[in-house]
Design goal:
By secondary structure, this protein is an alpha+beta fold. It folds into four domains: 97 residues, 2-Layer Sandwich (Alpha-Beta Plaits), CATH 3.30.70; 61 residues, MutS, DNA mismatch repair protein, domain I; 49 residues, no CATH class; 141 residues, Dna Ligase, domain 1 (2-Layer Sandwich). A five-stranded mixed β-sheet has the order 6-7-2-8-9. Strands 10, 11, 12, 13 and 14 form a five-stranded antiparallel β-sheet that branches. Strands 4-3-5 form a three-stranded mixed β-sheet. α4 packs antiparallel against α5. The N terminus is likely disordered.
């Protein structure tokens, strides 16, 4: 049985470290603070370029990739240093460790920025994404001595734009439904991917603010601008359906999904419903990435924050949740301990197989029909919202 319903909005953070290289250098050597700091070379390295200026240097007009000789003219009293080998990756790793204390759904974009999906982990923050973002920001600052700025919204592109709004050490929250209102008066160059050449073309047609983009249709952008039309118009309307892609997916070794429950419980029927939901989400991502697996792990976190997990090797490779549900329930039942309530439940697939479209036949079911059904459900979810389609196992009746 399948039900159709409106799903809850995702909540995504974009965390952008502030003047990352310079901040790391200042954290290691506090004597560098209080003056313009230019990472990229000493005052003698006049043929070098600026790798990262701190905010005091930026106030003097110094920018990344500027010739060091020009930076020296703008801040002759500044501290000019070469980058310190190894510290940026060290701090990046430490920042990511803090991210994982808040959510397992992390997509690193570079050494100093990442997307975090916090949709299912707001329980300890009374459902308030700002409280979580503030806690995360302050933990990075107090633990590592560096700062970050955070954008909060229902999608990736709006969160990325928002994270630039209150730098440094700031948080910008776009409430659901307020995306267009937030974006409208921002300069069009704030859109990721709009560089100097595209900006010049847009300005030529009187497009200076993001709201101006909605004055033209898709054909105009295809023929005149040369940038993918749906992208610009989607941004102008505050739309971005991309999911957060986990770090582990980049490594192509494993894929997982977890959910923190709204309350601690030992209610088996309820927990099995939530188990199917995370299994469904994980398998949907397997299909999207073109992976199959037969190595399944079920993980639980108990109310006392202890963690346990059990694994099982299936008989065949698959990316259909129906093929793993019975095994997942068996593993879950092993993990259930008398008197111990559950606060988090998750599944993980390992030993991923890619590029294999063959299906091992099952004489008791129509494999082609089942695969067509799942493929059509994936299309509907991609077009609208993941939770717009729900199976009976996950639906409260």
């Amino acid at each position: 049985m399948i039900f159709y319903m409106v799903g809850k909005k995702r909540i995504i953070l974009h965390v952008d470290m502030d003047a990352f290289f310079a901040s790391c250098e200042e954290a290691v050597n506090p004597k560098l603070r209080g003056k313009p700091l230019i990472v990229g070379g000493t005052k003698k390295d006049t043929r070098s370029i600026v790798s990262c200026p701190n905010y005091l240097a930026r106030q003097r007009g110094i920018r990344t990739a500027m010739p060091l000789a020009r930076a020296l003219q703008l801040a002759p009293d500044g501290n000019f240093i070469r980058g310190t080998r190894g510290i940026y990756s060290f701090y990046s790793k430490k920042v990511r460790e803090i991210f994982y204390k808040y959510t397992p759904l992390i997509e690193p974009m570079s050494i100093d920025e990442a997307y975090l999906d916090i949709t299912d982990v707001l329980r300890d923050f009374k459902g308030d994404p700002y409280k979580l973002a503030f806690s995360l920001k302050e933990e990075i600052k107090s633990t590592l001595g560096i700062t970050c700025s955070i954008g909060i919204s229902a999608n990736k592109v709006c969160s990325k734009i928002a994270s630039k709004q209150n730098k440094p050490d700031g948080i910008t929250h776009i409430p659901p439904g307020k995306e267009k209102e937030f974006l409208d008066n921002l300069p069009v160059e704030r859109i990721p991917g709009v560089g100097k050449a595209t900006l010049k073309q847009l300005n030529k047609y009187g497009i200076f603010r993001i709201a101006d983009l909605r004055r033209f249709d898709r054909t105009f952008y295809e023929e005149e601008i040369g940038m993918h039309s749906s992208y610009l118009l989607n941004v102008a309307n505050g739309i971005d359906n991309r999911e957060v892609t986990l770090y582990e997916d980049y490594e192509q070794k494993s894929l997982s999904k977890e959910i923190t429950l709204d309350f601690d419980t030992d209610d088996i029927p309820y927990l099995e419903k939530e188990l199917y939901y995370v299994l469904e989400k994980a398998c949907s991502r397997l299909r999207k990435k073109g992976y199959k697996s037969k190595n399944l792990t079920v993980k639980v976190k108990y109310a006392d924050f202890t963690v346990n997990q059990k694994s099982k090797m299936a008989d065949r490779y698959s990316n259909l949740e129906m093929d793993f549900y019975e095994d997942s329930v068996k593993l879950f039942n092993i993990l259930m301990k008398k008197g111990k309530s559950i606060r988090l439940i998750g599944v993980k697939f390992a030993d991923l197989l890619s590029g294999d479209d063959t299906t091992q036949e099952d004489m008791f079911r129509d494999e082609d029909k089942l695969n067509r059904l799942v493929k059509n459900i994936d299309k509907i979810r991609k077009k609208y919202d993941y939770d717009i389609v729900k199976f009976g196992k996950t639906f409260d009746i």
